[in-house]
Amino acid sequence: MASGSQLEAIKIDMDTIEVSNLNRQFLFRQSHVGQSKAKVARDAVLKFRPHINITPCHANIKDPEFDVEFFKKFNVVLNGLDNLDARRHVNRLCLAAEVPLVESGTTGFLGQVTVHVKGKTECYECQPKPTPKTYPVCTITSTPSKFVHCIVWAKDLLFAKLFGDKNQENDLNVRSSDGTNSTNHTEDVFERRTDEDPEQYACKIYDHVFGYNIEVALTNEETWKSRNKPRPLYVRDVLPDNLIQQNGSLENSVTEESVVSSMSSLGLKNPQDIWSLSENSKIFLEALRLFIERRQKDIGNLTFDKDDQLAVEFVTAAANIRASSFGIPLHSLFEAKGIAGNIVHAVATTNAIIAGLIVIEAIKILQGDFENLRMTYCLEHPSRKMLLMPVQPFEANKSCYVCSETPLLLEINTRTSKLRDFVEKIVKNKLGMHSPLIMHGSTLIFEAGDGLEEDVVANYALILDKALAELPAPVTSGTVLTVEDLHQEFSCNINIKHREEFDEEKEPDGMVLAGWIAPTQKDARIVSNGESTSAAHPAVTEMVEKSDDVEIAREKPGTKRKLSEMSEMIDHVHDIKPCSSHDVGDQVHPQEVEDNDDDDDIVILDENPETRKKKRLQ
Amino acid sequence: MVLAGIGSLTLMDDRSVTEDVLQSNFLIPPDEAYYSGRSLDELCCESLKDFNPMVRVSVEKGDLSQFDGEFFDKFDAVVLSCCSLKTKKAINEKCRRRPRRVAFYAIECRDSCGEIFVDLQKYTYIQVMSSYVAPCLDYILDCYKHGCLDTSDASKKSDGTAECQLNYPSLEEAISIAWRDLPRKVSKVYFAMRVIERFELSEGRNPGETSISDLPLILKMRKELCDAQSLGESYIPTSLLERILAAGGKEHPPVCAILGGVLGQEVIKAISGKGDPLKNFFYFDTADGKGIIEDMSNSSTS
């Protein structure tokens, strides 16, 4: 791209360089670790294109300085983002500024490039993007069948219970068949008395979650009628010669290190090894002990962080022990970290291909060649001989609430749902607005964002806890709310419909947003050497990410990542490390449905059955 | 390949820096004082070393087509680019005669299209057939066609992998297949490349040493070849030939990235013995945006 002599470019990136980037982000070197990606990238490009004009911006693309006026200055925007929220944000700004947008993403060996031109093609949000994968609570607490279920348990239940906010509700303790909660058994097993020996405490926890809780679960016969029964595990059985009991020499060998790690204190060096049950158990006990002895101050306010070595070790071990109990294959720390941290393979070669395709589209836009724009999908396995599949861009979806201003419908219990729920779950999460204004007719109900005065914010904070029907301008069935984000220059109307009941499992949010209609009959054409033929067929589905986004089907205030951030589309280049190649389960590629006349160079694409299967799970 | 961490990479390219090279090769700083008097392999070697200190990157001097067969025993894979057809065939033959397989790749990038040729001889590899993977119908059919999806359970292992075997033709064999016998709707780039190849051979030109003024001779060559193959000349679009001729030795950087990405991935797959390898040609053309795999092997060889 940097070969045009008149090109002026701005690169915006809020990240700094990490070691894990170096296997593919080849503009960076070891010596650059810690520095701004935008700046180092610019410097690297100048080395082979000294006269090019690139301005680096070490900033967040969502910052208010990047407003519509800013975007209007450009002929084309190329996205290399790694989260859905930012992509939607940029999409809206590009629509408002009327600047063509080239979107892209890669996931392992899959990738795609799409082009969005207002008035000519779909916008980025015309097609629904998959929402974050959630699992039913009971699968996590009682009947795991995949390793990812064990990870979610270890991360969001056990780790949270032991090291997180004590005041948080936690589903960790299983209900036994007689309906009593298993914590009635002991007073709170998880509370450690100050005089309680850390190692003994660790063993007690182990026995409780892997032994006692499993026995309790087994008493519920119905659950296990058509499932493999888990086996309870106790320290005394798994580690008969528990070395930790024979401390002394082991403890003394742990020196004051900057990074506390159970792996190093146990001499298990290779994160790619799959540990045995007893090794995992040792790691579990040792990690728990180390948290208590060395990181006491963190206990009570930790959330899982994939860059926290000890946390990753603990979660890996806990997940593996649970997996062992349920007959699920164990995984290495490397793989577990990938799943727990929502880390996705980033493959340098796929990134190169996608980068090349991005540039090809960008050049067309700069040359005004809008007729030949295309979307291109990079597959892992060829479909109809094609590894790279071009598709003509679709027309805008007339029902897209982002680019076509169609109103939405929200079913909600207006008597019990609070304004806060509406703002968090719908306005910020689903609609992706950051600085929303909510209007009821001409009355401004609520505002959020920077630049508001303190007393205004305080007033709004008070009404957040009011139920919708109790607001000064009551919101009831039939009300139309207008929600706007001035920064994104995006506005949409929501028709409110009151509903009393919501299904806890299927509608955990207690509200349902609808009205966005998925495009059905669409013409898709593969551009083919000048020929153009068309056939009606179902729309191409966006490729779904490979990583398992995991979150228990329950909202957790205070979690570091928003729901929308966790629903990663195909991630682009950023801080992502390889994860398990086992969980290729979510590999999706457009699948051929019909075999047309052989003379046509058309691939007819349909939603991949895998996607449909996943939707059912949610 | 270097980023991925292969063991070693040996470069051979005694050409000097030209304007065309600087337009598409970002490993070479456009500083004449720096690159003057040095060949491309030396310059690229220096940059590549930086990408991954764990990889041994080095340069080999000399004329590759004069080297003995033993020279190739040091390598798991050989990749040729900007070589004449004669050289490509000769090196391919040498690789095929080695006792231990040397994977062979040839890549050509002309204007905004390109071709990759793969020869892995007799190749056995691990295929992941876990229940998670939902291969598309074509893919399964392709596997059955190539005889590498064994319906018996013998080759399937409990971890969901299966052993597959493929037989690749040599370059000579592959391009000798009569055009009428090729699969339907083969990429036009294949034919265009063959015409230009022949032209360069008969005119004694270096690869890429063409220009639009060669068009009349090229069209004549096209007619000769098409007649010999009993095919109409319009089978090979004039516009495609024009593009490639006009570009000469120029390579379009994004197309290099695409072809390079595909090729890099193939080499890594072959070296590791994992992953379905490409068989046996790959084409990309910006004009239609398709990246196509063409399997051109006689039933006797496949």
TrEMBL record, chain A:
Region (Disordered): which ranges? 170-195, 575-618
Q: Which Pfam families match?
A: ThiF, UAE_UbL, UBA_E1_SCCH
Q: Which domain of life is it from?
A: Eukaryota
The entry marks the following residues as binding ATP, namely D13, N21, L22, N23, R24, K37, D82, N83, L84, D85, A86, R87
- Known InterPro entries for this protein? ThiF/MoeB/HesA (IPR045886), ThiF_NAD_FAD-bd (IPR000594), UAE_UbL_dom (IPR028077), Ub-E1_IAD_1 (IPR042449), Ub_act_enz_dom_a_sf (IPR023318), Uba2 (IPR030661), UBA_E1_SCCH (IPR019572), Ubiquitin-activating_enz (IPR035985)
Q: Which residues form the Ubiquitin/SUMO-activating enzyme ubiquitin-like domain?
A: 410-502
Give the pathway.
Protein modification; protein sumoylation
Where does the record place Acidic residues bias?
593-608
The residues listed in the UniProt record as binding Zn(2+), with positions renumbered to this chain, are C123, C126, C400, C403
Keywords of this entry: ATP-binding, Metal-binding, Nucleotide-binding, Ubl conjugation pathway, Zinc
Where, by residue number, is the active site? C138 (glycyl thioester intermediate)
Q: Matching SUPFAM superfamilies, A to Z?
A: Activating enzymes of the ubiquitin-like proteins (SSF69572)
Q: What GO terms in the biological process aspect are recorded for it?
A: protein sumoylation
One GO CC annotation, please?
A: SUMO activating enzyme complex
Keyword Kinase attached:
no
Listed GO MF terms: ATP binding; metal ion binding; SUMO activating enzyme activity
Q: Where is the composition biased (Basic and acidic residues)?
A: 185-195, 583-592
Q: Does the keyword Zinc apply?
A: yes
Q: Polar residues bias located where? A: 170-184
Q: Where is the Ubiquitin-activating enzyme SCCH domain?
A: 283-337
**Oligomeric and partner information:** Heterodimer.
Question: To which protein family does this belong?
Answer: Belongs to the ubiquitin-activating E1 family.
Q: What is the protein name stated in its UniProt record?
A: SUMO-activating enzyme subunit
Q: What is the lineage of its organism?
A: Eukaryota, Viridiplantae, Streptophyta, Embryophyta, Tracheophyta
Automatic annotation (TrEMBL), chain B:
Gene3D superfamilies (alphabetical): NAD(P)-binding Rossmann-like Domain
Pfam families assigned: ThiF
The scientific name of the source species is Elaeis guineensis var. tenera
Source species, domain of life: Eukaryota
Cited PANTHER family: SUMO-ACTIVATING ENZYME SUBUNIT 1, UBIQUITIN-ACTIVATING ENZYME E1
Cite the GO molecular-function annotations of the record.
SUMO activating enzyme activity
Q: What does the entry give for GO biological process? A: protein sumoylation
- Describe the location of the THIF-type NAD/FAD binding fold domain by residue ranges: 2-287
Protein known as: SUMO-activating enzyme subunit 1B-1 isoform X3
- An example Gene Ontology cellular component term from the record? SUMO activating enzyme complex
